[in-house]
Amino acid sequence: MAGVDLGICNFAAVSFGGESVLYPGGALKEDEYYFTKKKAKCGDSSSREATRLDRKRTGRRTHFLHALSKAIVEECVERGVGTLVVGDLGGIRDDDETGASRNWGDHGNLDLHGWAFDRFTTLLDYKAEAEGIDVELVSERDTSKSCSCCGHTDDAQRVERGLYVCENCETVANADVNGAENIRQKVLPSLATDGGDRDNGWLAQPAVRLFDRSEGVFAPREQL
User: Fold this and answer.
1) pLDDT tens digits, residue range 38-58?
2) Pfam families from the entry (predicted)?
């Protein structure tokens, strides 16, 4: 079983419960900023050039999402994963408790507007189904605040972007991987919480797959 945490800097973090993989979304972010800037120069958003830019941006984004979903499913097939547990981002664009639109920062708001999380989940679902892998959506509530090793929850544990430190058991983890492992544990509890002495270095040092524009696929960072 594997858990998938979707986000901004890393479009996807995948935990296999003993190893982990990050899929940065840098290439997609670069496209969003580039095409937004180019379209702004068109003046008329309904012009032929603006329409061409929109079509090209959509095509590149769709290809990225296809390549990413394919890469994750291939990793699962290689490891014999039967179920993918994905954090549900259905309410990520919803208003906050006060009724105001959620503010994710200037870059975050732009990214969330452009990134098709629903589209990605749909692609992941049908690619996984073709390989006999089930996909389950679960709530992401508290998955970024809880330690995946001991279960302790504290708002202050995510000490900085990308780093998670548990003051209770002193686990140090990549924050997105910690979230992905918490998502996985919502369906299959980890042996890491049974009090055993398990190596959790994989939480802090995930493998990284980068999008290779020249090949249109994701590949290990060291190969690029």
Assistant:
1) 888 887 778 888 889 889 988
2) Cas12f1-like_TNB (PF07282), OrfB_IS605 (PF01385)
